[in-house]
Design brief:
The complex is a heterodimer of chains A (165) and B (105).
Chain A lengths: L3 H22 L3 H21 L3 H26 L8 H31 L12 H10 L2 H23 L1
Chain B lengths: L8 H21 L3 H26 L3 H31 L13
Helix pairs in contact in B: 1-2, 2-3
Classes of the chains: A mainly alpha (165), B mainly alpha (105).
């Protein structure tokens, strides 16, 4: 009954959840950053498992390779230290876990109910080509695409101006 | 690859919900501003997973296009947000959000 896809899904899902829990549990932000890298790589593997190879590649290159590197650099530059354990942080752990479980259960109940109502048999050949994704991106979505290039330019200008001061 | 008969879509969505819940808990209860920012990125990643799952479930690529845009916006936001964090750290000499509670020093 256990096929290889299910096994791989559980492997990467456990890795992702483990990385996320480690992100919360670690006190030093550099360890949280490395845990987040683990989460992103396992999510990229999950995208690949679903057939979204372009998104998996973009996730590794941009998210794990650029954004997380930026985070690590900033942590290094700011010399971020460990968080201290105060009474409030202990209370946060005690109060946070039930709240988190409740929120997650609510979300999971909502999304899993929505997924099973959808007809799961899709006999149409599903378009998973990067070529078709590019066709969609550069035809129907060309205006948001150009807008994001302007957005990146604005972000570069903003970051340079802010960090220069 | 039709994942619906191999791995049910609800499995991916529940994983996305779990990651999002963990991101919310970390965002609310952590005190280091960089860790809080990383929890925002975790939430965005959880939402990306949900988008890709729905895109595969419906057989349309619009979900993946949206993921592309979310990643681009997250990159821009990370750059500017980290610049702001560096400014705050320079001015207040602390990364603890509980200590940054006055508008004027």
């Amino acid at each position: 009954m256990l096929n290889i896809e299910l096994f791989l899904f559980f492997l990467f899902a456990v890795m992702a959840v483990g990385g996320a829990v480690s992100l919360l549990a670690q006190r030093h932000p550099i360890r949280s950053a490395l845990s987040l890298i683990v989460v992103m790589v396992s999510l990229a593997a999950l995208y690949l498992l679903q057939g979204a190879e372009f998104i998996a590649a973009v996730q590794i290159i941009v998210y794990a390779g650029a954004i997380m590197v930026l985070f690590v650099f900033v942590i290094m530059l700011l010399n971020a230290g460990e968080e201290e354990r105060t009474g409030r942080s202990r209370l946060a752990v005690v109060a946070g876990i039930p709240v988190g479980v409740l929120l997650t259960a609510l979300l999971a109940w909502g999304v899993s109910g929505g997924a099973t109502t959808q007809a799961s048999v899709e006999t149409v050949v599903q378009p998973y080509d990067t070529k078709q994704l590019a066709a969609l991106l550069f035809r129907e979505f060309v205006f948001p695409f150009e807008l994001t290039s302007i957005l990146i330019l604005i972000a570069i200008l903003g970051a340079v101006v802010l960090a220069k001061r | 690859m039709k994942g619906n008969d191999l791995v049910p879509a609800s499995y991916y969505l529940i994983l996305s919900a779990v990651l999002f819940g963990l991101g919310v808990v970390g965002f609310v209860f952590k005190r280091n501003i960089i860790t809080i920012f990383m929890c925002i990125e975790l939430m965005l990643n959880a939402v990306n997973l949900a988008f890709v799952t729905f895109s595969q479930q419906h057989g349309q690529l619009d979900g993946q296009v949206f993921v592309f845009f979310v990643i681009v916006v997250a990159a821009a936001e990370a750059a500017v947000g980290l610049a702001i964090i560096m400014l705050i750290a320079r001015n207040r000499q602390t990364l603890n959000v509980e200590k940054v509670d006055l508008l004027k020093l």
